[in-house]
Amino acid sequence: MAELALAPRRPGAPGAAGWDTLRDEPGPDAVRCLGLYAKLAAGVTVVTALDAGGRQAGTTVSALTSLSARPALLLACLRAGSRTLAAVRARGVFAVSFLAEHQRAVAERFADPALPPAGRFTGVPVRQVLGLPVLSEALAWTVCLVEDVRRYGDHDLVVGRVRAVEVGDGRPLLWHDRAFRTLTCPPSEGG
Prior knowledge:
By secondary structure, this protein is an alpha+beta fold. The chain contains 5 helices and 12 strands. The protein is 18% helix and 39% strand. β11 (173-176) and β12 (179-182) form a beta hairpin. The relative contact order is 0.18. One of its GO terms (molecular function) is FMN binding. One of its GO terms (biological process) is pyrimidine nucleobase catabolic process. This is Oxidoreductase.
């Protein structure tokens, strides 16, 4: 697939006098963009970390993707100003638990802004892996060292270098069209 790149302005071309509609128009509003983003189907994860005082922090994240196999990197998008992001920045390490289809209540719990950080973990089976909380019943998990953090708009992109991994069997919990979903097709062999 060819990469899309904006061509530089040519002298004398429309827009050369300082106006380029693609670059200079404000674009669609946030509501339209959120409607577009809602059409993305994504796996549901919980990102966990320990804050500077050693207290557990965690949040539900659907904006997570693999970035590289060599070196093993993943990318998580965390809301700017969140307690979990502050904990990730403070310690430079985090865990990601990939939720299984039966873990909707866990996803809702970690997404609830009314729950304090400690309350999010109450009643959720957790084990410690390399000193970090990992959800025991997760489909898979990883522990990552922070490689880079950059702010883009209202979120920070956190690049994690994978240091430990465990992958189990089962089917993932999904987020699509502003709701939790599950796969409706039969599972493939081995999954």
